[in-house]
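Our example pasted here:


***
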Amino acid sequence: FLPFPLIIIMFIAHSFGINPILHLISSEVFPTSIRSLGYGVTLCLSTSANALQSFLFPYVLSWVDTAGCFFWFSISSFILAVYAFIILPDNRGLSLTNIERGMNQEKKTSLMQKQ
């Protein structure tokens, strides 16, 4: 009786937590011409990674115990946060059109510098 309500609560918390943020970032990263394809591939890879993580979790738990699992997830979360901070641009207050124009200008500038 208890697992089903807990699963529902988990999905509700996920919907109000990180899930919308991931969808927003994914929609801003790709240029308009390939946005739907890029978003679909990203969502497919994300779902596959989540499934793999769910599959491997019991094995990892038996190898390194609960503390090791928390340590691994903390380290990987920290590394991904640093990566996102360094790589993802700050797009606050910009429309998707302005973001795409800025990225196109950066590409043109970098191509001109290489020549």
In short: The mean pLDDT is 83.
